[in-house]
Amino acid sequence: MGDDGVQANTRRIEESVVTDFSDRMSYGGYLELPTLLSAQRPLSDPEHHDELLFIVQHQTTELWLKLVLHELTDACARLRADDLGHALKNIARVKHVQKTLAEQWSVLATLTPSEYAEFRGVLGNSSGFQSWQYRAVEFTLGNKNAAMLKVFEADPQAHQMVAEALAQPSLYDEFLRYLARHGYPVPAAVLERDVTTAWTFDAELVPVFATIYADTEQHWAAYETCEELVDLEDNFQLWRFRHLKTVERIIGLKPGTGGSSGAPFLRRALELTFFPELYAVRTAL
User: Fold this and answer.
1) Contact 145/131 with Cβ under 8 angstroms?
2) Global pTM exceeds 0.90
3) Residue 99: phi, psi to the nearest 5?
4) Burial of 221 by CB count in 10 Å (0-12 exposed, 13-18 middle, 19+ buried)?
5) Would you say 40 and 52 are in contact if contact means Cβ atoms under 8 Å apart?
6) For 38-65, what is each residue's pLDDT tens digit?
7) Which of 65, 169, 175, 283 could bridge across to 133 with cysteines, CB 3.0–4.6 Å?
């Protein structure tokens, strides 16, 4: 037997390892695995092999979106409390989740057009467009659209979540308010704007960011936050692009199950922006 307790390619279980869970919290109990793992219920009949991939892909995406929303909501609260350090920690975690979400498209891309066609019909009109968590994340980042609320009217709980995200200041709103409280000349109109509307480019903000970028040492905290926000937008756009290319790869130019035009509709999402002044300032420097 080796020093590591391995013999015949079998690892010895140490005596201190807990094996009796008759009255203890277990891994499966803590994570509620019986509930979680019973939530994948393919509808194709006979069940098509690849439908499980499709379900798991979207369910794991929703779990990650739950964490993203959790972190962004806390980041907004931290900014309101002038706790920039913790807000940046939240954003750093979101960035890692975004990378995972973008890479996850490569798994779904293993689904071929002929495989998807075998069970696409059972989806009915269900579509990722109806993800209320995705919409709440998008709203929390500032890309708001009140017309989207109609999609969730049949589900009061989902409707409430999206409506609350619409009504709250976005992460960008909170950052601009933070800057104003710390002496930066953010225009009053920006601070008093209707936060239920989508953020649109404001040329008066560009000089504010130009001052920050012109002397990064003096304005390090603000500068670092600006760059973290740029990372968030870059990652989000990469996710949108990977979504588009995966859809094109699997269904080409067919309409989406939710009634959209499909790939053309997704391509227009790439024109949407969260923090346009943080890109414009690069031209102004």
Assistant:
1) no
2) yes
3) -65, -40
4) middle
5) yes
6) 999 999 999 999 999 999 999 999 999 9
7) 65
